[in-house]
Backbone:
C-alpha cells in the first residue's frame, strides 16, 4: 500500500503513471491511487480506470464493467458538483497485477508524452463549475457505452474518456471538448456495431 503522505510527484500524467508503475508490489489497486492522488483528483483516477480498456488485448467478457462502474461513479460526483473523488469500498479494492499495469504504462507512455506537449491550460465553458457538471454527465453516458460487450467498441470509447481525463488534469477546455466529441463518435460507432451485429445474426438465422 502506498504511504498516504507520499503524494505522486509533479511532472504530468505520464510522470505520475511511471512513478506508480515502477513502485514495488504485487498488485496495483484503486486504493493505492487514491492514497497518492494529492490534488490531481478526478482526472487521474478517470484516466487510470479507462486505461485498461484503451489497450487492445484479448476479449474477456465483463472485463470493462467494474471500470465502467467506477467511471460512472466519478462522473456522477462531478455532475453533483463534488470536488474530491469518493468511491465505495468494493471499487476501491479493484486491482490489477502490478506487472500488467507496468506493461500498460510502457505501451501508452510514448504517445502520452507526445500528447502532453499539446495540452495546456485553456479556459472554456467546460472548465467552469457548470461545465464540470456537464463533463460529469458525459462521463456517465460514456461509461454506460464502455460497459457494453461490443467487440472492437471499447477501445475508442476508452480513448475518448482518456482525452477527457487529460483535459481535466491540465484544465484544457479544448481537450475536454475534443474528448466529448470523440466520445460521441465512439458511441455512434458502437451503435453501428450493435445494429450490424444484430443484422448479421438475423441473416444467419434465416440462412439456417
Residues:
Amino acid at each position: 500500500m502506498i504511504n498516504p503522505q507520499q503524494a505522486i510527484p509533479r511532472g504530468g500524467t505520464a510522470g505520475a503513471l511511471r512513478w506508480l508503475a515502477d513502485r514495488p508490489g504485487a498488485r496495483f489497486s484503486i486504493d493505492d491511487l487514491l492514497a497518492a492522488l494529492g490534488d490531481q483528483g478526478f482526472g487521474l483516477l478517470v484516466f487510470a480506470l479507462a486505461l485498461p480498456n484503451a489497450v487492445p488485448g484479448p476479449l474477456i467478457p465483463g472485463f470493462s464493467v467494474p471500470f465502467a462502474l467506477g467511471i460512472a461513479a466519478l462522473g456522477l460526483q462531478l455532475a453533483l458538483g463534488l470536488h474530491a473523488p469518493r468511491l465505495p469500498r468494493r471499487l476501491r479494492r479493484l486491482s490489477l497485477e502490478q506487472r500488467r499495469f507496468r506493461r500498460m504504462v510502457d505501451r501508452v507512455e510514448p504517445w502520452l508524452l507526445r500528447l502532453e506537449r499539446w495540452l495546456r491550460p485553456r479556459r472554456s465553458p467546460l472548465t467552469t463549475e457548470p461545465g464540470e457538471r456537464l463533463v460529469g454527465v458525459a462521463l456517465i453516458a460514456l461509461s454506460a457505452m464502455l460497459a457494453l460487450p461490443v467487440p472492437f467498441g471499447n477501445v475508442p470509447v476508452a480513448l475518448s474518456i482518456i482525452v477527457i481525463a487529460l483535459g481535466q488534469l491540465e484544465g484544457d477546455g479544448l481537450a475536454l471538448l475534443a474528448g466529448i466529441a470523440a466520445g460521441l463518435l465512439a458511441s455512434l460507432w458502437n451503435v453501428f456495431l450493435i445494429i450490424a451485429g444484430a443484422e448479421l445474426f438475423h441473416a444467419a438465422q434465416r440462412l439456417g
